[in-house]
Design brief:
single chain; two-stranded parallel ribbon; seven-stranded mixed sheet; alpha/beta; globular
Length: about 210
C-alpha cells in the first residue's frame, strides 16, 4: 500500500513539469488528485483539457488493458508528454463478466449512466448471485517506457440505486465489507478502497521506488 503520510513529499521530474491523466471526466481527475494528495508524492496532475484536446479517443478494443494502452499512446504520440490512461470495467459474475470493457456505453453510445444502471438492474432482475468486481487498468508512459498497473475491488450489485455521490455504476455497487454503495460513502472513504485507488497506489509506489 502507499504511504498515507502527507509530509515529506517527493517531487518527480516530468516532461512539462506535470503528469497528464488521459481523461475528460472531471470526477475521475478529481478522484485521482485527492488520492495523490493523500500520499507523499508531489506531482501536478492535469487532464486532457490542459493540452487543448477536446475530441474523443476511440476505445475500440476488447480488453481494458488494450484500451488503456491505446489511450496513453495516443496522447504520448500527439503531445510527447508523460501521461497515464485508465480503463475501468464492472464485471458481474452472473452476466459472464458483462458489462466489462463496455461498461461506459452498456446501454448505448451516449454513455448515460442512468441508462446503463437501468439495463444492468433489468438483466439482474430476480438473480440471486449478484457478486461483481470493479477493475481498473492503468497504462503509464514515463520517459518513453510503458508500465501497467491493475486495481480490483470486490462487491455486489444492489437491487436499486443508493446515494447521490460518485458516478457511473457507483449507486448500485456495494463493496465487500461495507454496508452501502459507493455513492452513499463520503469521498475519503470511497477513495481509500476503490479499484482506481488500488491501481493508482500501485503506480505511486512504483514512482516512489524508481526515484529513491
Amino acid at each position: 500500500m502507499g504511504s498515507q503520510n502527507p509530509h515529506n513529499k517527493m517531487t518527480i521530474q516530468l516532461k512539462n513539469d506535470r503528469l497528464i491523466f488521459v481523461t475528460q471526466n472531471r470526477h475521475k481527475l478529481m478522484e485521482a488528485k485527492q488520492i495523490f494528495a493523500a500520499n507523499r508524492l508531489s506531482i501536478p496532475l492535469a487532464g486532457l483539457d490542459s493540452l487543448g484536446f477536446s475530441g474523443d479517443i476511440p476505445e475500440v478494443h476488447d480488453t481494458l488493458e488494450e484500451n488503456a494502452i491505446a489511450k496513453s499512446n495516443f496522447v504520448y504520440r500527439k503531445y510527447g508528454c508523460d501521461c497515464f490512461a485508465d480503463d475501468t470495467g464492472l464485471e458481474v459474475h452472473a452476466l459472464d463478466g458483462r458489462p466489462g470493457v463496455y461498461s461506459a456505453r452498456y446501454a448505448g453510445a451516449e454513455g448515460i449512466a442512468a441508462d446503463n444502471i437501468a439495463k444492468l438492474l433489468n438483466e439482474l432482475h430476480g438473480v440471486v448471485d449478484r457478486t461483481a468486481q470493479f477493475r481498473t487498468v492503468i497504462s503509464l508512459i514515463l520517459n518513453k517506457k510503458e508500465y501497467l498497473f491493475e486495481g480490483v475491488v470486490y462487491g455486489e450489485i444492489l437491487t436499486h440505486p443508493i446515494g447521490e455521490m460518485g458516478f457511473g455504476y457507483d449507486p448500485v455497487f456495494k463493496p465487500a465489507g461495507h454496508h452501502t454503495s459507493f455513492s452513499a460513502m463520503d469521498v475519503a472513504t470511497k477513495n481509500s478502497i476503490s479499484h482506481r485507488y488500488h491501481a493508482l497506489i500501485k503506480m505511486i509506489d512504483f514512482l516512489l521506488a524508481i526515484h529513491k
